[in-house]
Amino acid sequence: FYEACDLLMGISKQTVNINKLVLGEKADSRILRYVPHGLNHDIFKPIDKNDPDLKEFKKHLFKNKEYDFALLFNSRNIRRKQIPDTLLAYKYFIDTLPIEQAKKCCIVLHTERVSDHGTDLDAVIELLLNGEQYNVVFTDAKFDPIGMNKLYNSTDCQILLTSNEGWGLSLTEAILAGNPIIANVTGGMQDQMRFEDEDGNWFTPSAEIPSNHTGRYKKCGTWAFPVFPTSRTLVGSPQTPYIWDDTCRPEDAAKQIANVYNLPSLERKLRGLAGREWALGSEAGFTGEFQGKRIIEAFNTLFSTWKPREKFELINTNEVEDRVINHKLLY
Questions:
Q1: Strands 231-235 and 243-247
Q2: Are 221 and 215 in contact (CB under 8 A)?
Q3: What is the pTM of this model?
Q4: pLDDT of residue 322
Q5: Burial class (CB in 10 A: 0-12, 13-18, 19+), 15
Q6: pLDDT tens for residues 112-170?
Q7: Range 244-268 burial, b when 16+ CB lie within 10 A, else e
């Protein structure tokens, strides 16, 4: 499939690296570009806490209750999103607080309550979070982008512990809204945490270091609270025969929830705004404008260098190369 393309645009640095590894020497005759997701930063943005529309939104969301700290999970109820682990991490965090402080915290779940692709979250909550100190706010409403921005601005932090993730768009939305993020270090989510390599550059995967899920690099953006996986297993399906599945410990996630909670509210917001500033800049460029420019640049490069192929190609199917692992398994 990759060889059939003249231009490949990857949404994550890891995807671009996979393109290179799979193509091998043929990557030199293809155009490969990193084109991360871009969003409308005039929609996903910080809102003043005294904004009347935001106050009304929070009133309905929290049913007239007020919380000092609200943790948000916004994604689908599917297996790899690790929602039970997220709820367990929240329980571990709450159990460290005095009862009165715990009652002023909540976790907001914007997802399906029950899904055949995931689990029965009501049953998980009944088992793990059965007590007055645990506040779970469910919303499965279909918000438009403006409503989604209000949801982010109603909460203090977005958490996503997915075990394998191409990008993690809810993290981008949260960053643009000016919120810190807690995320498992895997796939495209690690891009959004901006890990630095030994040269001080934004980490780029290679054949030698295909991912930072081993925790090789710890320094990251101040808006990011990474959770490094402690279990790496090889899973797959007929269409995707193998892929790393990175699972982090709920105990480790709970510590990062506590780290965000313990920040003064102003410091928490400043860290979130630092993430937004980076996302709007030319290095990250997680905006629609930057995404559009990158795609146009890639197309222009393609059109200016493209040469028509022969109408057909003869391939000797008796001469098939053996499959080889072209990246390190231990690094």
A1: antiparallel
A2: no
A3: 0.95
A4: 80
A5: buried
A6: 999 999 999 999 999 999 999 999 999 989 999 999 999 999 999 999 999 999 999 99
A7: bbbbbbbebbbbbbbebbebeeeeb
